[in-house]
């Protein structure tokens, strides 16, 4: 699936005040899932979630914005331990704190950000938009980590033929 978010004016209108900030743009310096950086991941989660929320009559604004900010933390989670608890528990709270410093966050957006690790954490989301971002986040993580690896192995196998 080609993500043409840069040409989707409806999406851009919802996130343009956030996506080009220094804070969000700085996410490109952090590796996310082996073959992607955190900015690419966050945009992918945000845009795909926006499309699903639109299709399922959800709050597209909250979904797009919270999807973009769900991993707004500024450290390499593989190397640094931040606070008490697992990364799955801690980073959504750090992302929420950072998001609140960047913009006003609605209760729906807060639930999306804090609960996006459901499955690895206990507290379930309260809203369908939170479930959308949670599931899209997992999908994107798999796609970002597995698809490039699969292509690499396929090319390697073809080189032996």
TrEMBL record:
State the SUPFAM superfamilies in the record.
HD-domain/PDEase-like
The HD domain covers: 38-141
Q: Which domain of life is it from?
A: Bacteria
Gene3D superfamilies, per the entry: Hypothetical protein af1432 (1.10.3210.10)
- InterPro entries membership: HD/PDEase_dom (IPR003607), HD_domain (IPR006674)
Q: What is this protein called?
A: HD domain-containing protein
- Source species of the chain: Vagococcus silagei
